[in-house]
Amino acid sequence: MEDRVYTRLEHLERTTERHNALIQELQRRMDGVEEMREDLRRVEQALTRLEGRLEALLGRMQTWQAIVWALLIMLVGAVVSAGFEMFKR
After folding, report:
1. What are the transmembrane regions (predicted)?
2. Is pLDDT above 70 for 60?
3. In the structure, how many helices (H) and strands (E) does the chain have?
4. Of 62, 42, 39, 61, which Cα lies nearest the Cα of 50?
5. How far is CA 58 from CA 23, 44, 47, 55, 61, in A?
């Protein structure tokens, strides 16, 4: 009878050790998931900042594009005007 009790206690101890190991592994994985969530939050913040920078860059690019078009139109107008002046003579 005493051997049976010790056997059951040993079995219970091994089972408890396995359960504790499983619990520790699950806790480690949950911690990993929490770290991933934090990493994803930081990536999202970085993407938001990048989006703002790209929008600002696009706005500046459109301004420069308008300036270049205005200069080209003025240049073409000056060339056409000079051509008409040459043909008048």
Report:
1. 66-87
2. yes
3. 1, 0
4. 42
5. 52, 21, 16, 5, 5
Question: Under DSSP, is residue 25 helix (H, G, I), strand (E, B) or coil?
Answer: helix
Distance (Å, rounded) from C-alpha 35 to C-alpha 39?
6
Q: What is the mean pLDDT of residues 9-31?
A: 95
**Identity of the residue numbered 79:** V
SS3 per-residue string spanning 30-84: HHHHHHHHHHHHHHHHHHHHHHHHHHHHHHHHHHHHHHHHHHHHHHHHHHHHHHH
**Residue 79, both tokens:** 């060339």
| pLDDT above 90 for 1 | no
Weakest-pLDDT range from 34-38, 45-49, 79-83? 79-83
State yes or no: pLDDT of 89 exceeds 70.
Answer: no
Instruction: Report helix, strand or coil for 46.
Output: helix
